[in-house]
Amino acid sequence: MKEVVNKMDLEEFGFLKLSIPPDTDIKSEIERLRKEKNVVILAHFYQSGDIQDIADHVGDSLALAQAAESTTADIILFSGVHFMAETAKILNPDKKVLLPDLKAGCSLAESCDPAQFRKFVEAHPDHTVISYINTTAEIKALTDIICTSSNALHIINSIPADEKIIFAPDRNLGNYLKSQTGRDMLVWDGACHVHEEFSLEKILEIKEMHPDAKIIAHPECERPLLLVADHIGSTSSLLNFTKKDPGKKYIVATEAGILHQMRKFNSDKLFIPAPPKDSTCACNDCNFMKLNSMEKIYNALRYEMPELTMDSMLIEKSLKPIKRMLEISAKFGL
Length: 334
Ligand code: 13P
Ligand code: SF4
Prior knowledge:
Helix content is 42%, strand content 15%. With 334 residues, the chain is of the alpha/beta class.
């Protein structure tokens, strides 16, 4: 029997606070509900292993945006963070998009205030605005082309070489792209709290103990760490590297959820999560990503809540730069 839903819970907690009988087989119930309601479950690599294992698509931000664009499901359940579910909604304004916990935000997206960003863009009218997908829809609406860490180099190289660029919001990714392309680029001063928390000192200590280990890092990490990395790339690029590389040990400098896929595909290799500066916290787990759980997914499927809703004008304005990203990515076979 269904419990009475208190919608106030959504405002207060971000999810439905409903108890689940202890004998419930949550995994099979999710399976039953997703078929019954024609739901596609999209999960980012930073989700916990149990969620990754029940998803229809597990991937990085680009792959999940592509999966959202092409889905024929009636409902999209996005197990990731708010900007990812928002992108799915922008691409599918007529579909119901569920986010198991509405408080699953992103410190990087929050580091770019729309009013300040508008002023910045207006002050540089001769610049093409490229924004990372880790932004709110308001920022996307002020952007010419969206990118992810998988396609950022292709997106930048697809625009004329003399075109000046504004890149937002990640300073580490932006400066990395600037160094790789040599482009005239103004970089917004935002950052992700997870990727700036890795300790280079502790990573180098691990490297001393395992000299054969390769350091692999997401470009949201700080420059000194990127300078010692053997491979830099998006979550899918890091995963692919570990599949193809003949090495046996890796120190992984990105959110720890990706290790689930790495270990699944490479049972004979050792993956060491890069430690954070503060050893008393589990800072290499994104607290926002890890708000999602199997229980919350189950309740979200049962009650079709929390639903992500958006203003139609904002959807219209933010769709254009996302579509441009998807078109350019398709041209490059990404
Ligand atoms: P990816 O583009 O690799 O999925 O990265 C997303 C993200 O949130 C990184 O912190
Ligand atoms: Fe945002 Fe960082 Fe979490 Fe990625 S890891 S979702 S950039 S806070």
